[in-house]
Design goal:
Elements: H1 6-20, E1 26-33, E2 38-45, E3 60-61, H2 66-79, H3 95-103, H4 113-117, H5 130-138, H6 146-154, H7 171-185, H8 189-196, E4 208-209, E5 226-227, E6 230-231, E7 247-249, H9 251-262, H10 270-276, E8 298-302, E9 305-312, E10 316-321, E11 326-331, H11 338-354
Antiparallel strand pairs: 1-2, 1-11, 3-7, 4-7, 5-6, 8-9, 9-10, 10-11
Helix pairs in contact: 1-11, 2-7, 3-6
Length: 364
Amino acid sequence: MAEPPPAEIFQKALENAASSLPDSPGIAVIVQAPRRGIDWQAAVGNADPAGTPLTADHPFRVASITKAFIAAAILRLEEEGKLSLAQPINALLAPETAALLRSGGYNPNRITIRQLMDHTSGLRDFFDDPSYEKTMLSDPKRRWTRAEQIAIAMKAGPAYGTPGERFHYADTGYSILGEILERTTGMPMGTALRSLLPYDKLALSSTWLESLEPAPAAAKPRTHQYASGVDMTAADPSYDLFGGGGLVSTLGDVARFFRGIFRGHVFRDPATLASGLTIATAEAGAGYMLIARPALFAPEKVGPHACMGLGGYYGTLVVHCPAIDLTIGFNANTANPDSFDVAGRFMEAVGTALGTAPSATPMK
């Protein structure tokens, strides 16, 4: 019996994902493999409580996928000679931030930029404090500051280890990278990202830092997103805004950005990408994302294909598989830990359906 066409397999995988996540308001997916003539997207469910059908073009809070944009911008600053990933962060910080780190027992003269980027700095995550997420959910209109979040991390417990010793995922490091980006460029974070990254060239027309810059005129209304049953759509985005999260985007925009990185449209020097994909030598951590990952992306396996990608708090996963120029996006709009397993199964079905046959010549 002949294999069903890829679109049929993708649709079935989407329906399986929806049945596995009955609490999700809707799931949107994209599969793009231009060298195989595939550009497919679909969605099930609703974008809002009024019943607006969800589409793959609806923007949403991408949460930790923001880290890829921040890391890419920092790498661009290194290309421009404005900083070095190997340098200690102390001279790049506001004195108040350096003092906060010292108050928690950290030495900013020993922590490097690269260690912030690849989560080996030893810094605690402000999400380690259980009261932080509780407050985020019970007081969603609260406006947080970067300094408040760093201060919470300083009291969340002892360091994960000395700088470079142990991998442990920490939003705190990316909040500090956001400050370094602002201070090094002399620009607000949103402006700095747009000055360093080719938003226009990659047609990132529905990507913006929520509350820090206006939404693009062409962007659709944001889809509703939920955490512990709470509709977080109207929540102040500052609970996850200052570098570790904060971007609103679409699956298509994120896919174009990831693909642009691997196709040479973001960095001037191929060695920059290689540097961003170098895996740190460090002990495994505990909790979320145990295994050390490069600065830019986390390694992912999609069927038989080796890929790179990132996930976000609200059940989002986007990966790119350079060898076959395959990009897959999945978004469930709900903070359910099971979402990532379900996303993984969707991507496994896609990768298996595409098989291992060589693709055509890489596209630029």
